[in-house]
Description:
Layout: H1 2-15, H2 19-24, H3 26-40, H4 42-62, E1 67-75, H5 84-91, H6 101-108, H7 111-119, E2 125-130, E3 135-137, E4 144-148, E5 154-156, E6 159-164, E7 169-183, E8 188-203, E9 207-209, E10 214-219, H8 225-229, E11 233-237, H9 240-250, E12 251-254, E13 262-269, H10 272-330, H11 337-372, H12 390-411, H13 418-464, H14 468-503, E14 508-516, H15 526-551, H16 558-565, E15 569-574, H17 583-586, H18 591-603, E16 614-619, H19 626-639, E17 644-648, H20 668-672, H21 678-681, E18 683-684, E19 690-693, H22 702-706, H23 709-719, E20 724-728, H24 737-743, E21 747-753, H25 759-771, E22 777-783, H26 787-792
Parallel strand pairs: 15-22, 16-20, 16-21, 17-19, 17-20, 21-22
Antiparallel strand pairs: 1-13, 1-14, 2-3, 2-11, 4-10, 5-7, 6-7, 6-11, 7-8, 9-10, 12-13, 18-19
Helix pairs in contact: 4-15, 5-14, 7-9, 7-10, 10-14, 11-13, 11-14, 12-13, 18-19
Amino acid sequence: MAKNKNSKNETEIKYIISRQDLEEDDTIYDIKIIIDRFIKNWWLFLLTTVLAIGIAYFATKFIQPKYKVSTSLVINEDNSLTNAPAALMQEIGFITGDKNFLNEVFLLQASPLIQSALDKLDLRVSYYKKEPIGYSELYKSSPFIVLINPAHTQPVGCRFNIKITSQKTCVISIDEEEMHLFSFVTNQTTQIVKDYQSEQEVIFGNYIGNDFFSFKILLNNEQDLEELLEQEFSFVINTDKSLITAFKEAMEIIPPDKQSTVAELSMETAVPVKAIDFLNSLTESYLHKDFLQKQHTAEKTIEYINEQLDKVSESLNLAEDNLQNFRSQKKILDVSMQSQQIFDELKELKKEKAVLDVNLKYVEYIQDYFKQNNTYTDLISPASMGIEDPTLNSLIEELISLNIEKVSFIDNNQEKNPYLQKINIRIDNLRSMISENINYIKRTTNIAIEDADSRINQLNKEIEKMPETERALLGIERVFDINNSIYTYLLEKKSEAEIAKASYQSDIEIAEPADIVGNTPVSPDKKIYYLISLLMGLAIPSGFLYIKEILSTSFISTEEIKKASLVPVIGEINRNSKKIEDVVAKLPESHIAESFRKLTFNLKYFMNDNSGKIIALSSSISGEGKSFVALNLAQTLANNNYRTVLAGFDIRRPKKYASLRNKIDLGISDILINQASVDDVIQKTDNEYLDILPAGNIPPNPAELLSSNRTGELINEIKENYDFVIIDTPPVGVVTDGFSLMEKADLNIFVSRVKHTPKKEFEELISELKEKKLISGLVINDIPVDRRKSSKYGYKYYKAY
């Protein structure tokens, strides 16, 4: 027996496939599984695919098409390069440096600008027509209009359904679980009404109202009434906030490339006319806002200059009157040449000092402005006042630009935006730098004024040496010329400002007005819909089959069993559709009989000619066909003229084999308790080479009997008279009786059955049997016959059943 065992183990090692080899073939195996699953369930894949494509077809028919609408703006960041008027504006300080493209893009999406654009459009009420699926919006084509009472609360965001019944009447209804009442006076929600329902017939042109709403409906008499009677309409009252939110979400702003400053504003919408009107209104509002901003800066500068002119004008008029009166009284029109030279030099000094005084006043204005204001919208640029300090000009311009960004963030309710915090820090830093710069300018200006005063004093001493009349005339002329110089200087700056204001052109250009992009809708994309439907048609049944496989507690295919066991498969038995037990004897030309002949042929690779021929068959649970396989394997061996005995050792559940000639009650259990001999129990069959040793009566102690020495003696006694002993053991997954029988066998075959063998128990048993070296090969039972494959490979030779 030891020799036989060694031979058996060598054979097992030779033919058992290693796990590593199987894992290398996992990819091919999985592909085969998928293909096999698809072929077996082709009707399910076809059905779901047809349904999915059908749904996609109807979806593309009834879903409203969306079109892309876009417009383009050129935002010139370098203002100095646009045109001559713009250059003049920048030179005198009305343009505060270069634009930041990203900041301008943000401004285009800001709520105040969108609100300004919406104010030009009539979008307070949206009109719809009921379609087979959903509603389509009627922009500028509604057969009626709704005039709301702005002083009354209105339900916003709620759908009022309209059914036109005649030329004068209609039925209006509303059914809302939660109705928000909104006041357009306070711009706030005043009340929330739960589960509101209402339906009434109303007359066109009359006010419809109650405590919750108030409006009237006017019918467009130009439309065909008969057509309107067959349709259903509705309308929704919108708030400014809801409209702003909707357009914000729908609008996208992107530059065509990284180097470009062309902003493309686009929207995908089912109502392209509405989108065109909105984008055109938005760009107009943006240009107007830019224009007003420049106008505001120019007007503030001119206003400041006018204030200074008013102050100087009085002094100039008084000096002029004094000069004329003095010349009239003293009969003197001019002074001597020497006195004139001194006077001219003094005049230039006074003019220089006048400019310094103006600059000093502007610096003091900046200091006072910083003390009284935290915003810098009305701050005047130094360049507009003739202060040629590049550092101060640059700092003030940057401060004004940052303040514009800050105001935009605040107007757009972005107070918590991290970028706004950075802007505030930069503004504080700029303010400190400007204050230091102003202090420095103030000090240097005061020094320049003191120097001018010193030189003026020296000239005054020279004047004191002149005759009294000339000296008096020079004094009066000096006062007049000082005021005249200041007045002339201010007039020049005012003239420059007015010219620049009148010549201003926006540095923002509309490259492309709003229009539909292309001639076809961007959605629904039929190709994408059909592709997705095709993928869904394949994915849904695949997912269903995969989940079904995961949730299944038993193996649903031979491939699963092979992968779970990793032991060689000796045979694959076809399905016994005729429910005949001894198929080899009664249906010798069938597929299933051939599968047993193939099993018999494979056995020679697992058994040595010099070893015994004891073959034990077991399974994890009952019902897997263990006894069926044992009977027909014995029949096949007997058909090959091998003297074979089938021993039914499953004494817990005795099997009544179909091939028995005589039905007697004695069996193996009786032999084991010494109540009968082998000759008393052995039974003949129709096949002279096949005998059967039935299980017999159920003993009270089957486990003890099967593990006793008497069992081994019985097996040795039997094999002396036969070429093959086929042992039908109890299921080892249910009781342990079979293990003692398998230890006595030369070859152990484990029988499994498709869609019956439990996965968990099978894997645990196979692992245990491998560990105990009690498994030689696997037989898979109840495999469906593939008729197409049979026909393809010429298996029509066998009789189908």
